[in-house]
Write a structure and sequence with these properties.
By secondary structure, the protein is of the alpha/beta class. It has a domain at 34-155. 62% of the residues lie in helices and 16% in strands. A seven-stranded mixed barrel has the order 1-4-3-2-6-5-7. The longest helix has 112 residues, at 208-319. The chain is elongated. The N and C termini lie far apart (256 Å).
Length: 336
């Protein structure tokens, strides 16, 4: 009976251990099942050296998931398709970007999820309602994606490495240009220029007194500048006064022109009246020229004769007024 009881005890203990192990496995499995994951994809156009399945995925430096698949894109062989899982509560939206970065100098690559601030600000400027949140990233069916797709970007170090050949080419061109600049001929020219500068410096030091006088003359000229400016301002004011008078004269010019036009019209009316008078007196003038001039000439001739007789009478009166009035007292010789 004792041997049989020990077998039952051992069997029960083993059964309990098996059940406990089975429960532990179920608890671990339940933990893995309860651990909610979300899958995303991204496509890199650059090399993904150092990135492998199991590489970590970080959200602004926080570990949130890992890479689950890496392959060449079936739609475009120039792109590398990367699938990764992150915690479902990771705040990923349409403005999230997957950036390939390396950790330290070890070269271990990982995916850093960043936020496109510029794109978000542009979207927020259009959608001003704070309650509206950006939607989740969409599945890029055109690329053959199966999960929501994030835009990709290369890290700063990767950009430097990609631009390094261009930088080296630019440095090489700069070195060639410097080499051609400092050849023997240019070095001799630079040496000559430096010599000329030294001579010029000596000449300037010898001409110190002249330079001092020049500076003194400039100082005097500067001191005389304010009076000249004042005179110029006075001239400008006079010109302004003259301009005002000219403007006034210009304003008074239209009435004067109107008066002149009225005078011209009056002169035209007077000329018309004069022409009318000439037409009316033309015949009497012709008649006067035909007969009146002859009679006038006779009258003038008789008037001249009368004037001569009057002159003789006045001369006799002046010579001997009494003889003219009383006659001559002398008697002439009377024959017997």
């Amino acid at each position: 009976m004792e041997t049989r009881a020990s077998y039952v005890l051992v069997g029960g203990f083993v059964l309990i251990i098996i059940v406990a192990m089975f429960g532990f496995v179920l608890w671990i499995a339940k933990g893995q099942i309860d651990k909610q994951q979300a899958s995303y994809q991204t496509y890199f156009k650059t090399t993904v050296t150092g990135l492998q399945v199991g590489s970590v995925v970080r959200y602004r430096g926080i570990l949130v998931g890992e890479v689950t698949k890496i392959r060449v894109s079936l739609k475009n062989t120039n792109e590398i398709e990367v699938t990764f899982e992150v915690k479902r509560d990771t705040p990923i939206d349409r403005f999230s970007t997957a950036v390939l970065e390396t950790q330290g100098i070890t070269g271990v690559a990982f995916i850093q999820i960043k936020h496109d601030a510029k794109g978000y600000e542009a979207w927020r400027a259009v959608v001003t309602n704070e309650a509206v949140k950006p939607g989740a990233p969409q599945v890029d069916v055109a690329r053959g994606a199966q999960y929501p797709t994030l835009d990709s970007d290369s890290s700063g170090f990767e950009k430097i490495l990609s631009d390094l050949p261009k930088m080296l080419a630019s440095i090489r061109e700069l070195a060639d240009a410097a080499k051609s600049l400092f050849d023997r001929g240019n070095l001799d020219s630079i040496k000559t220029t430096l010599t000329n500068l030294a001579l010029l410096s000596k000449g300037i030091s010898k001409s110190g007194e002249k330079i001092d006088r020049l500076i003194g003359n400039l100082d005097k000229a500067v001191k005389q500048l304010p009076p000249a400016i004042a005179d110029a301002r006075a001239g400008i004011r006079k010109f302004g006064t003259m301009s005002a008078s000219l403007n006034k004269a210009v304003l008074e010019l239209p009435p004067a022109i109107a008066d002149a036009r009225a005078g011209i019209r009056n002169f035209g009316a007077m000329s018309a009246s004069l022409n009318k008078l000439i037409k009316e007196t033309r015949r009497p003038i012709r008649d006067f020229a035909a007969t009146g001039l002859y009679e006038l000439s006779l009258f003038i001739t008789e008037a001249r004769e009368l004037v001569r007789n009057l002159n003789r009478v006045s001369k006799r009166i002046e010579d001997d007024p009494s003889r003219f009035l009383f006659g001559s007292g002398q008697k002439g010789y009377t024959p017997k």
